Amino acid sequence: SEGCATCASALAGGDNCDNPIMITTSGRRRTVVSTCGARNDVSSGCNGRNGPDIVVALRVARRGQVAARFTVPDGVSVNFGYDLAARSCRDEATLRQCNSNNTATTQGFDLTLDAGTYYLYVATSAAATIVVDTTLP
What we know:
Layout: E1 21-23, E2 27-34, E3 53-60, E4 64-71, E5 78-82, E6 97-98, E7 106-113, E8 116-124, E9 129-136
């Protein structure tokens, strides 16, 4: 309905810091999210990306290894920025780190993180479904 041929049904929300998509389940989990209908209104700070973006929050219950992979369809690229420490969601790019400056259909990380909520500012080059694979302690 939004001219978004590469979108599948996804979790609602995530368009900005007012309604981030929360991932809280320990262990491995696959979540489908989407930038379809999302605006380009959150600065990811990553390689000057201009495209729809969403905010995904990872709630880490205890210190441990955290992994996340974001995969989009062929022909679309994905990138994300994040804050180095658990803190409240912020719409500005101050101190925001970029995961990678490379254009790719998959971006991710594998880090040891303290307990807390970490916000990821995810942008795609075009409106698309994003498959998010996470592992939380």
